[in-house]
Amino acid sequence: MAIMVAGGHTRNIGKTSVVAGLVAAMPEMHWTAFKITQFGHGMCSANGEPCDCETAEHTVAVSEERPGGDATTDSGRYLAAGAARSFWVRTRQGDLSEAMPRIRKEIERAENVVIESNSILRFLRPDLYLSVLDPETADFKDSAKYFLDRADAVLVPEGVLGRPEWKGVSLKLVEGTPVLPIRPPIYVTDEVVGFVRRRLRARVIV
User: Fold this and answer.
1) How many domains does the chain have?
2) What is the pLDDT along the chain (206 residues), one digit of tens a residue?
3) What is the rounded end-to-end Cα distance, in angstroms, of the chain?
4) In the chain, alpha helices (H)
5) By residue range, what is the domain housing residue 109?
6) Nearest-angstrom CA–CA distance, 154 and 151
């Protein structure tokens, strides 16, 4: 089994497009895909809507996408791209550990796994970790910064890091790390697919 994780430093920089693109490019992997969302205070993990609840049953929710469902959601896009199964995991910020028993159960049932998340790296060590970066977007999640030096490759528009807008983030964290190009709206280039295939073959039997 291969476990691949794709993360990134902020929202709306193409993380989901990268995962969906890799699922589509490697149908032989029969991926089980996970989208992990952590909500801050005032958001409900049950549905992602504004909420004032503080009850324990609303700290974690896991839903599986079904064929014919909404293909515009992130986890729906994974299924539409060809994933064997696709899950949306929602937890309160800092409560991802509460979802890990269910995640591990589904991983055990999977042929190969891809997870969109940075924070999942606190609980498992994947065979491959990709970090999607946009040098022109200043926001940088703490989780992305914490794990950046563990990235096997960084995916950057046109493959050029240049002089990023990030504050307090040193490029030394990715010194020597392969920099692969993404070319929106094409987020998974031949270079990216080739790199992923080579790394997974080197680390696991596929």
Assistant:
1) 1
2) 999 999 999 999 999 999 999 999 999 999 999 999 988 645 554 555 565 444 456 678 999 999 988 999 999 999 999 999 999 999 988 899 999 999 999 999 999 999 999 999 999 999 999 999 999 999 999 999 999 999 999 999 998 888 898 988 988 999 999 999 999 999 999 999 999 999 999 987 54
3) 7
4) 15-25, 74-81, 96-109, 142-147, 190-203
5) 3-203
6) 7
pTM, to two decimals: 0.90
Q: What is the DSSP string of 40-91?
A: -TTB-TTTSSB-----GGGSEEEEE--TTS-TTSHHHHHHHHT-SEEEEEEE
Q: List the beta bridge partners of residue 166.
A: none
The contacts found for 173-179 with CB under 8 angstroms, 24 or more apart, are: 173/145, 173/148, 173/149, 174/131, 174/148, 174/149, 177/151, 177/152, 177/153, 178/152, 178/153, 178/154, 179/153, 179/154
For residue 9, report the phi and psi dihedrals to the nearest 5 degrees.
-90, -10
Residue 26: give its domain's CATH number.
Answer: 3.40.50
Output the six-digit token pair for 192: 């990216």
* Rounded distance between C-alpha atoms, residue 96 and residue 38, angstroms: 7
**Cα–Cα distance, 140 to 11 (Å, whole number):** 9
